[in-house]
Amino acid sequence: MMAQYLEVKAQHPDALLFYRMGDFYELFFDDAVAAAAALDIALTKRGKHLDDDIPMCGVPHHAAEGYLLTLIRKGFRVAIAEQMETPEQARKRGHKSVVNRDVVRLVTPGTLTEDTLLDARRHNFLAAFAELRDEGALAWADISTGQIRVMPCTRTRLGPELARLAPRELLVTDTRAEAIRPVAEDMGTALTGLAPSSFDSQAAEARLCKLYKVQSLDGFGQFTRAERAALGALVDYLDLTQRGKLPLLQAPARDTAEELVQIDAATRRNLELTQSLSGTREGALLHAIDRTVTAAGARLLERRLASPSRRLDTIMERQAAVTFLHGNSRLRGDLRAALKEVPDLDRALSRLSLDRAGPRDLGAIRNAIAQALDIAALLDQQEGPPLMHNAAQALQGHDALLDLLDTALIAAPPLLARDGGFIAPSHDPDLDEARKLRDEGRSVIAQMQADYAQDTGITSLKIKHNNVLGYFIEVTATHAERMLSEPLSTRYIHRQTTANQVRFTTVDLSEMETRILNAGARALEIEKRLFVELRDAILARAAELAQTARALAEIDLAAGLADIAQAADWCAPKLDQTRSFSITGGRHPVVEAALAKTGDPFIANDCDLGAENTAAIWLLTGPNMAGKSTFLRQNAVIAILAQMGAWVPAKAAHIGLVSQVFSRVGASDDLARGRSTFMVEMVETAAILNQADDRALVILDEIGRGTATYDGLSIAWATLEHLHDVNRARALFATHYHEMSALAGRLEGVENATVTVKEWEGEVIFLHEVKRGAADRSYGVQVARLAGLPDTVIARAREVLSALEQGEAGTKPKALIDDLPLFSAARAPAPATPQTPPALEKLAQINPDELSPREALDLIYELRALAKR
C-alpha cells in the first residue's frame, strides 16, 4: 500500500495528498506533519519506511470539506485520491492485491465548487495572465457559475484588474511567476505557475474549439493571440485539476478597458467599495447598499459595483429598470418575495456538469424554474422597460423540463444520490416494484401463499424461509401425493422431505426470492440511473437555464437597488456626455447608515464642479475632523453608483460620464517594500498625475502632509496646478494648507470651498457643512484639545502658533523660528488651573429633582446675574 501511496504522491509533489482509506482520508510523511499543524489534529505514525517511523494523520471522509476549506485558506493545494474499486474487486486480482487508487481532483483556491467551501454571495474567480511579445491578456472564470471572460491587459494594468476582480488564484507561465508574484501577493491572490505549453495560443485555440464543440472561435468574437492563450491556459488547468471533468463554461465574452470606469487598487481600498480597510464586508459600500435576496443577485451587484460602465446606453437601460421598480412598490414587493425562494441555479448547474451534484441540486433547479415562471407571470402584468421585458422572456420556456422534474422528484430530495429515496412514487414502474419488494416483501409472499393455496386446494399450504433453502412451499405429508402428481408436479418442484413435512418450490417463487433479496440494491441502481437521466435532461438545456439564472439576478439587483433608493430617499441621476458634475444634497451611504444607528443626522452637501466652461476643481479647506474626507469620498461614490446604473444618495445629480476615478485619501507605511507613509502618498499621487484624463474624477486629500511644511506646501501647490493645466480633470482637492486658497484667483478652473466650523468659548464645533469660500485657519490646536492632549501642551502650542502667525507679516520664517523660545516650555510655569465660572459652580450644587417650579425660576435669575459678572 505504501508503495502505491508514494507512486501517487510523486505525481503531485506540490499538493497535500488526501489518500482514501475506507471512511478516512489519510496523509503520510511530510504531508501529515504539515496538515496536522494546519488543522490542529493529532499526528501519529503508521509502520516504517527505510527503518523510520511514518508520520500519519487523517480526517473523516464525511467531514472532509471543512478540513479542505481550512487548508485552502492557509495556502495549500490538495490532491484527492479515491478508491477506484471495491476491496472485493481487488481480491479477485489476487489475495494480497491493493485496492486501486487514483487522484480524481486537485483542490485549489480558484477551483472550488462546493457550497460549504464558497461564499454564496461572492464570485470565486480563477484568472490566467498571458504575455506574448508586445501584447497581454487576462482571462478569468468562476467554475461554480460557469462565467468566463477575457480582456486585453498589459502587465501595468494587471494590478488594477486583479483589484477589480479579486481572483482567488492567478495562473502565469512559470518563467514569469517570480516577476508577477509581488502584484499577486498585493491583491491576496494565490499564484500558480504553469508550463509555457499551457499558454501556447495555437494549442489553446484547439483546446477551446474542442470544449465548445465548434470548428472556429469566430462565433464568439475576435480574440487576440494573447486572449486565446489566456483562455486556453484556464481550460488546460481546469482539465488538469478536474481530471477531465470540465465544468459547464458559458461562451467566452470579451471585455475592453474602454467600456469600464478605470479604478486602481489604491482607489478601491480608499473608497472601501467591496470591503472595508480592515478587510471585512461590514463597513464597505457593498454591504451598505446590498438589498439583494438571492446569491446570484448579490454576486451581480458586486460585479457591477467593481466595474461601473462607461456606455451611456447600458447605464440608462439599467437605471430604467430601477426606476420602473421604484415606481411600482407592490410589484417590487411581490418580486422580492418570490425571489427569496429562488435557489442558486448557476452553482447547481455547475455541480451537475462536474458530477458533484446530488438530488438536492435537481430539486434546486426544479424550484428555480418554478419560481422563474411565477416571476415571469408577475412581470407580464405590466409593460416594463427593455431590461425587465427581456428578463421576463428569459425566465420562460422550461415547461417540459419542469414537468419532468416535478413528476420525477419528491418535494424535499436528500443530499446524496447514494441514499436513494429521491424519486417520486409512480414515476418509474420498475422502481415502484423494487421498492414494494424491498419494503413489503412479507405481504408479497403472503399473497403468493394465498394464490398457491387456491391453486392446489391445500388450505394448510405455507411459504416459509430458512438460511439453507431460502423461500420454500411447505405442506404436510398427507398432501404430498397430490403435489407430486399431475398436473401440480409440473409447476411445483420437490425440494426436501422431512419426517412430517414435504417442501417444494416454483420458478416464480425462486425468481421472487432473488428479486426480494436484491430489491434494495436494485432500487438504488434504478434511482442512480434515473438521476443520470434527469441530470442529462437538465444539461441539455444548460444554455437556456444559464440565461434564466442571469435574468433572475438582473431582476433581483434592480429590485434591490429600487428598494434602497426608496427607503433611503435616493434620486435618479441625470447622465450625459458633458463634463458636468453637479450634486445637490449628496450623502455618503455608509456614514449615513452608521450615524442612523446612533440617531445622529447626516449633513448633506452640494458639489458643483461646473459645466464646460466653469470651475472643474474645488479646493477644499477646513480643519481636520470637519468632514472633508467624507465629502470627497461621497462624491466619488455617487459617480460610481450612477455609472453602475443605480440611483444615488442625493436630492439631485447631473453627472457627465466619468472615465476614471482616482482617490488618494489617507495613507500608511508599506514596511514590506521599505516605503514610508510619505513615499506611499507620493507613489499614489504620481500614478494619478500620470494617468488621469480630462474625463476623470480625482479626489485628493492632504497632499504633502508627510514631509516638512514648506516641502509639503510646494508639492501640493504643484500637484494642483498639474491637475488644472495638464490633466484638466474634474477634482476635489482637500488640504490643510489654507495658503493654497490664493490659487483660486490665479487658475480659472479652481474654486475655493470650505467645511464650516463655529468657535464658542475657545471650543470648535464642527458643522460638517461645505460652502463656497476659503478657511483662514486650520484649527489644529482646537482639534488637539478635543483629542485630549494635556493642558500644558495645548497652552504651549497656542503660544508658538501666535508667534508664528505674528511673524508671517514681516519676519522671515527662519529668523522667526530662531527667535522663538522653543525650549522655554520646560522652564515656563504651568498655566494656572482654569477658574470655573461662578454660574457653573452654582449649577453644579443644584439637584433639579428637589426644585419646585418657583425655585427653578428664581435659580434662572440668579444664574443670569452670576453670568454677567
From TrEMBL:
It comes from the Bacteria. Pfam families: MutS_I, MutS_II, MutS_III, MutS_IV, MutS_V. The keyword Metal-binding does not apply. GO terms for molecular function: ATP binding; ATP-dependent DNA damage sensor activity; damaged DNA binding; mismatched DNA binding. Coiled coil: none annotated. ATP binds at G622, P623, N624, M625, A626, G627, K628, S629. This protein is involved in the repair of mismatches in DNA. It is possible that it carries out the mismatch recognition step. This protein has a weak ATPase activity. PANTHER family: DNA MISMATCH REPAIR PROTEIN MSH1, MITOCHONDRIAL, DNA MISMATCH REPAIR PROTEIN MUTS FAMILY MEMBER. This is DNA mismatch repair protein MutS. The gene is mutS.
